[in-house]
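Predicting holo structure, S-adenosylmethionine bound.
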Amino acid sequence: MTRRVHIIGIGAGSPAHLTLEAIEAMRAVDVFLVADKRETTAQLVDARRALCEKAIPDGGFRFVTVPDPKRGPDADRDAGQYRQGVADWHAARAAAYREIIEGLPEDEVVGFLVWGDPAFYDSTIRVVDTVADSLDLVVHVVPGISAFQALAAAHRIVLHEVGQPVHITTGRRLVDEWSPDLGTVVVMLDGHLACRELVSRAPDLRIWWGASLGLPQQELRSGRLADVIDEIVAVRARLRKEHGWVMDVYALAPEPGA
Ligand SMILES: C[S@@+](CC[C@H](N)C(=O)[O-])C[C@H]1O[C@@H](n2cnc3c(N)ncnc32)[C@H](O)[C@@H]1O
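Done. Tokens:
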């Protein structure tokens, strides 16, 4: 028997980011599997539950939290160890999901609520593909509003110059790979604001930064990197202190004509 799985992009935090397609898919789901990463995720699990209550007022769905396999500190690893660590973690996650899905009635529809868009820095599609290697699944993916789209909209900017590319990367890679030829660089997954290390090399870079986009505590800053970075560091630290967690994303671009 084939089981149905919906991988649903839910946007970057605001219930208003949910698309009609996402709501339709959410209403078809019987069981949502939610990875429980323990530290900050109680709030993220609650946020998903609140979205479901809003989008599915008639109820009829269940939440199953799946303890996330332990993953060592990424910062201490070289690139090879990092890739292996991620591969092991994906495999363990796939095994946990498989066990739960196998135990469900075969006609129940399974849903994964993915923050932002499932195509960017999220492992759900890869992990579900691994589950599908040994279980008969039909997988449907619904796109969501990614954090960097919410960032661009909040700052009312186009991310790239006319006809130019945009480079999307992580804080982990930024300092090694940045060069002015990249044009606009969008940085996600950067708990340490790695752009601080570019200030001496490229103080005139422009930055558009956004934290907790779509949430009531949203903060935005923009300007010349060297001028605004200290304030961004301080605002980020304050949000983290006040809310227990913070997610932020930023775009860097050379001054036009530089
Ligand atoms: C694991 S990645 C998931 C990205 C997600 N799939 C997306 O499309 O936005 C998490 C990163 O997304 C960014 N992010 C997600 N939600 C955000 C928000 N509401 N405000 C700012 N950044 C956010 C941050 O860079 C965070 O480190």
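Residues 3-142 form a domain with the Cobalt-precorrin-4 Transmethylase; domain 1 fold (CATH 3.40.1010.10).
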